[in-house]
Amino acid sequence: MTEEFRALTEAECESGRQIVVAAARWARDRGVDRVLVPPSPETYRDRQRRGQNYGLFVDGRLAGVVSLLELPHTVWQDWTGAERTIWLGSLATGEAFHGQGVGRRMVNACARLAAARGYRWLYLDCQDANGRLVAYYEALGFQRLTKETRTFSIGTVEAVLMRKDLAGLHET
């Protein structure tokens, strides 16, 4: 089995977005607690233009996608402050690859990439309706910082802010 984690090409962008859309539908149908609104086609293409969409390819097939967003997150700025921040977003696994650790491997690859760019923390936010998603991220080394009602572009939701310490991943 060969594996490659890399930025998506322009030709792969729509396939990546379709994985996110299908994953949101899959999660919603199973009551998994996550933001159920995938990024719009425009937002996903904008992320693509900025080089923020990544994929994990297994034996040449796109197994999963994730966005790695370097931005000031105004919704959580009271927690993150003015420091540079990098955010994990739109983590999704292709249906044929569910249960094979693709999400974990993508999160670990994103953490290494963020550390190589000089970041101390990798942030994410998610919903916590039944605890499964937060527990998943905690198992991947993320720490829960707070759970609060916040207003995002998709509406007002109760969200959990989490971060992963990248200190051990920095090259010395």
What would you call the structural class?
A: alpha+beta
Number of helices: 5
User: In terms of per-residue confidence, which ranges show pLDDT below 50 for 5 or more consecutive residues?
Assistant: none
Give the strand order of the largest sheet, numbering strands 1, 2, ... along the chain. 1-2-3-4
Q: What percentage of residues falls in helices of 4 or more residues?
A: 25-40%
Query: Which word captures the global form?
Result: globular
Terminal CA distance: 31 Å
The amount of beta strand, in percent, is: 25-35%
Any idea what the radius of gyration is? 15 Å
Query: Number of DSSP strands?
Result: 7
Instruction: Please state the average pLDDT score.
Output: 89
Largest sheet geometry? 4 strands, antiparallel
What series of H and E elements makes up the topology? Answer: EHHEEHEHEHEE
Give a quick summary of the entry.
This protein is α+β, with helices and mostly antiparallel strands. The protein is built from five helices and seven strands; from the N terminus they run E-H-H-E-E-H-E-H-E-H-E-E.
